[in-house]
């Protein structure tokens, strides 16, 4: 009961579950974090998760679950997507990458980097990764390419993501994004 990572995992689970009602639309389609109706989030659950994160931080013994929970806490603390403290998210991903280096963490860090420094920097970080067999790698590239005004390259990246995705809801989401490019 005194293990910091157990508390970090609990905080991460609470913060993740607090957003569950807003993650999908009534038709089952995915809703991006930036587009979620935050009034649907379970604020009591999120507050409990943030309190646990704060207690973990005070202990000064960070581990991967605690840092992941801290990232989720930053998102849950923002009243709107535009209010997200992306610099803090990026700093937490830097910490997580040091604690638990993996290409998936690096991909998530690249998303935060794009929010802080722009999509060109995010794309450069993504393109340094060896994740060609992971659909979210291609989906992330596609989103960044769209933001950079490079729709033909984005279409190719969406096509690659669609070849790899296994989840039907994600497939529909990616297909809609791909179709939106014309």
What does this structure look like?
The structure is a single chain. This protein is mainly alpha-helical and 182 residues long. Helix content is 68%, strand content 0%. It contains 9 helices and no strands. The protein has helices at 4-18, 43-59, 64-77, 86-99, 103-117, 119-127, 135-147, 151-164, 168-179. Helix 1 packs parallel to helix 3 and helix 6 (119-127) packs antiparallel against helix 7. The longest helix has 17 residues, at 43-59. The chain is globular, with a radius of gyration of 17 Å. It starts with a helix and ends with a helix. The model has no long low-confidence stretch (mean pLDDT 96).
Offer a few descriptive terms.
182 residues; mainly alpha; 68% helix
Gross morphology is globular
Supply the number of helical segments: 9
Question: Tell me about the biggest sheet?
Answer: none
Number of strands: 0
Query: Residue share in helices?
Result: 55-70%
Secondary-structure element series: HHHHHHHHH
**Structural class of the helices, strands and pairings?**
mainly alpha
What gyration radius follows from the Cα positions, in whole Å? 17 Å
Instruction: Note poorly predicted spans.
Output: none
Quaternary state of the chains: single chain
Distance between the termini: 54 Å
Mean pLDDT: 96
Question: What is the beta-strand fraction?
Answer: under 5%
Describe the secondary-structure layout:
Blueprint: H1 4-18, H2 43-59, H3 64-77, H4 86-99, H5 103-117, H6 119-127, H7 135-147, H8 151-164, H9 168-179
Helix pairs in contact: 1-2, 1-3, 2-3, 3-4, 4-5, 5-6, 6-7, 7-8, 8-9
């Amino acid at each position: 009961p005194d293990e910091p990572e157990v508390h970090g995992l609990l905080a991460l689970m609470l913060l993740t579950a607090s957003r569950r009602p807003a993650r999908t639309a009534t038709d089952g389609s995915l809703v991006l974090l930036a587009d979620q109706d935050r009034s649907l989030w379970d604020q009591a659950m999120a507050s409990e998760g943030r309190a646990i994160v704060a207690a973990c931080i005070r202990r000064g013994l960070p581990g991967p679950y605690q840092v992941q929970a801290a990232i989720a806490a930053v998102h849950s603390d923002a009243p709107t997507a535009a209010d997200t403290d992306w610099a803090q998210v990026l700093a937490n991903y830097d910490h997580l990458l040091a604690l638990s280096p993996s290409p998936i963490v690096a991909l998530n860090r690249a998303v935060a980097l794009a929010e802080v420094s722009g999509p060109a920097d995010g794309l450069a970080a993504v393109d340094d990764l060896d994740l060609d067999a992971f659909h979210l790698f291609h989906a992330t590239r596609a989103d960044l390419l769209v933001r950079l005004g490079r729709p033909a390259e984005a279409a190719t990246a969406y096509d690659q993501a669609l070849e790899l995705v296994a989840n039907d809801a994600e497939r529909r989401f990616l297909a809609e994004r791909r179709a939106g490019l014309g």
